[in-house]
Amino acid sequence: METLSIGVLASGRGSNFQAIIDAIDSGYLKAHIVLLITDNPNAYAIERAQKHAIETLILTPKLFASRNDYFKKIAEELKVREVGLVILAGFMRVVGKPLVDAYRYRIMNIHPALLPSFPGLHGQSQALEYGVKISGCTVHFVDEGVDTGPIIIQAAVPAFFDDTEDALSERILRLEHRIFPEAIRLFAENRLEVVGRKVNIYGEIREISALLNPRITT
Ligand code: GRF
Predict the structure, then answer these.
(1) Beta strand 192-195 with 198-201: parallel, antiparallel or unpaired?
(2) pLDDT value at position 208?
(3) How far is the CA of 1 from the centre of ligand 1 (A)?
(4) Among 149, 186, 202, 217, which one has the highest count of C-beta atoms within 10 angstroms of its own C-beta?
(5) In CATH, what number does 1-103 get?
(6) Measuring from each residue's beta carbon to the nearest atom of ligand 1, which residues come in under 6 Å?
(7) ∠ CA 170-173-175 to the nearest 5 degrees?
(8) Mean pLDDT score across all residues of the chain
């Protein structure tokens, strides 16, 4: 099987980006990251890319005539490098139609809540304010909506009465770093099929159920 080429879009610190780099380095995930695109010239993700000799493009939306033009350009840069899977790793924009169309069911996002609850910004504080007892994270394919695409993997953590946004975010983040590489691995192994709005996972899924319990290492 050909090695999967990944393009990453990130706007900030890029800890999920790092988790994917580490999963590749350790041999857990057979893929290579060919490009980082960021909309933020100050993103710490840029330093992470440099450390690993990953090509980086800084594309600032305000330099484009329209949102569509911006996402058309991103799609072109990814296509030219034969990217097979696009990863949104803390990319703080709603993906425009030209990119969604060019990479239908080949764009993955991670969201820090159990979708369809608490989509959009600040999923963790939305969940705390609502008073949920369980929250978590979701890896999903990206469609035209905001955090609405077919769900690939979810993992859950407890939420406490006196939790802070930081504490809950940290608890969730630890699982993000595990389920994102896992979802990408399933994609790389051609084990995901989108059926309507559901994702069917082929083969052994024991490792995914284990991820629901953060104390079990897989
Ligand atoms: C994560 O909480 C992720 O769920 C959300 O944005 C944050 C990105 O963090 N989409 P990082 O840049 O990967 O550290």
Answers:
(1) antiparallel
(2) 56
(3) 30
(4) 149
(5) 3.40.50.170
(6) 10, 12-16, 89-90, 110-112, 137, 173, 176
(7) 120
(8) 94
